[in-house]
Fold:
Amino acid sequence: MNKRELDPQASPAAEFGALLRTSREERGWTQEHLAGLVGCTSSHISALENGRRKPTQPISAALDRAFDTSQAGTFKHKASDVKYSALLEGFAQFVVQERRAVELRLFELGIVPGLLQTEEYANAIAAGAVRRRSITQDQADERVQVLINRQITMRREPPPLVHVVMDESCIRRPVGGNAVMAAQLDHLIEFTREPTVRLQIAPFALGEDRAFDLPVSILTLPDRSLISYAESAHQGRLERDINAVAAELADYYQLQTHALSQADSVAMIRELRRQL
Structure:
């Protein structure tokens, strides 16, 4: 058995592996014994425990049966978290924390933030990536489904507080044609009517005074700790260092100060909607 220590905080795959190993060892089972219960090889169990193999839904369901956790779906839910990591490095960890957050601060440029996208808009963005051959159709479908699931979790009770600052490019960039854009702009206006949200546009006029050049999310967790997540084209990074996150939060507050008010932002969105 090639056993190596895993940091459950490192990734969803590591968290799954650590849970599997702990659950097995608590029962005094060998990897061979568990493999017999699940219907796979001991090397498969070892790879799962070491984070070298991603769990499938059938294996996760079999593990839930073996550990008598089918009702809670413990391994099935953990496997879903691992699955997200196929989308973008670092994204899986962010999704796990996003579900826990009591307050979200988002900045986006180029496209409407995912949590605010209509399904048609999200499909149009994914379809563009397929046409460019950046992703397959299956991957596009998965991205959209993950986005829908994230939006559903945001409708929990009590709802999180959501602050959104969008670069003006987000609402001016045409996506999916006039009908899709019209529905998306209507959705943004409707979003601003929620009592727990705030939406602002960072106008082009900010120029070099715009605080961020990449999308960023800052999450406040239930214990009031802060983490942030930023993306480049091919990688996402979850930042836990309090000094680094505090600096990003200060920049975000400054951005909110310079951005249009929500009323003026809605007026800009309405004017663009009128032109479609």
